[in-house]
Design a protein that fits this description.
The chain has 12 helices and 15 strands. The chain is of the alpha/beta class. Among the domains are: 94-178 and 282-318, D-Maltodextrin-Binding Protein, domain 2, CATH 3.40.190; 181-278, D-Maltodextrin-Binding Protein, domain 2, CATH 3.40.190.10. Helix 1 runs antiparallel to helix 2 and helix 3 runs antiparallel to helix 12 (310-318).
């Protein structure tokens, strides 16, 4: 799917903002990927989100370069030692999922016109584990939760951010994914760790007013912060040597590090940082309040998928650039 106009881009960024909570956090970070024209890869399907926004008129379109060969950490959001009992659903059950179609690489319409993405594949894996039928239908973001409210769907799998408000109104699954914060340091600065002592006195570029800035103020008070209005400017400061490191969302930073604009200047160091107070608890599948049988069944399926390696395969398929 080619993002062709501002309306499509705004729809995607709206979903991103809802996942991350604060525009200054992941919405701004992943919006940069749109500005840079990054191609998201999902197995055989590649999506080009190559629309330059007015906020960054001077940035040329790029495609990410192949990721460097390195050990990849598969994030574990479910305790493998935790025992979750199986919850069987009635024979002949079909789980009707709804998702959005403009949030790559999580959920989107592929070149063949079919829904694809991490969330779509995860929904199918859940149904396969539970032995149920499975349908996945697209909806606009504002109509996802109402579809569950009206009984038109059993579950929403669209990277809804876990929050206390959402918990009060709906059943939420175990986390399906969680976004981290990461430091990326200039290679010529010989920074090998990201502990407080090692970074004392270093200059770090960060988006001003973001959760990332708040985290640095709380836990790295000896750092010299160089604040920027946009993430692309924070990246540029590190690339040009105006900052020793940049601190930002792990996904956006991973794509930047492997793209042309970084010019191999920097590499991840330390982390990941996942404190929920600053970066959220992650995303979950949303179900109607009181549908505990389905929630318990989906939690069991997620636990099984995470234990037997299927989650790792999905993660590597849709996030080939490691961000943990």
């Amino acid at each position: 799917m080619q993002v062709k106009n501002v309306e499509q881009t705004d729809a995607m960024l709206s979903a991103i903002a809802r996942f991350g909570g604060k525009p200054s956090q992941i919405a701004r970070d992943l919006a940069l990927l749109v500005r840079l024209g990054v191609a998201f890869s999902a197995g055989p399907v590649a999506i080009s989100v190559g629309l330059l926004l007015a906020a960054s008129p001077g940035i040329a379109q790029i495609s990410p370069q192949p990721a460097a060969r390195e050990a990849v950490t598969i994030p574990g959001f479910i305790d493998p030692e935790r025992r979750i009992d199986r919850r069987d659903l009635p024979r002949g059950t079909t789980i009707r999922f709804v998702t959005e179609e403009d949030f790559p690489p999580f959920n989107f319409v592929g070149r063949d016109g079919a829904l694809a993405g991490f969330n779509v594949d995860l929904a199918r894996a859940i149904c396969a584990e539970l032995g149920t039928g499975c349908t996945i239908q697209p909806r606009k973001w504002d109509f996802l939760l109402p579809a569950v409210d009206r009984g038109e769907a059993e579950a929403v799998i669209a990277s809804h951010r876990i929050s206390s408000d959402l918990r009060r109104e709906y059943e939420l699954s175990l986390p399906t994914i969680r976004v981290s914060a990461r430091f990326a340091a200039r290679r010529d600065k010989n920074i090998t760790s990201a502990d407080i002592k090692a970074l004392a006195g270093r200059t770090v570029s960060v988006v001003g007013g973001s959760a990332h800035e708040a985290y640095l103020n709380a836990f790295f008070p000896a750092l010299k912060l160089s604040r920027f209005e946009r993430l692309d400017l924070a990246f540029e400061a590190a690339q040009k040597g105006e900052a020793d490191l940049v601190f930002a969302d792990g996904v956006a930073t991973a794509f930047w590090l492997n793209g042309a604009t970084a010019a191999s200047c920097c590499a991840f160091v330390g982390g990941p940082f996942t404190e929920s107070r600053y970066f959220g608890e992650g995303a979950a599948i949303v179900m109607r309040r009181g549908n505990t049988d389905l929630r318990q069944a989906i939690d069991y399926a997620l636990w099984r998928i995470s234990r037997d390696g299927r989650y790792a395969k999905l993660y590597l398929k849709h996030f080939p650039v490691p961000f943990y």
